[in-house]
Amino acid sequence: MQIYLFYMYFILFLLLLYLFLFLFDCLIYFVFVSFDFFFFFFFFFNFCFFFFCI
Prior knowledge:
Layout: H1 2-25, H2 29-53
Helix pairs in contact: 1-2
């Protein structure tokens, strides 16, 4: 149970971090475009992994 709780907080942190990067992209788009794709796929993989674990 504690592991799931920690993992939920970890995913929430990733989501907030990705949201911050996405908003930051509106200002500096060309610098972070490749980094955002990597972050999106990383978050998506973690999201799927979390639901498969449950």
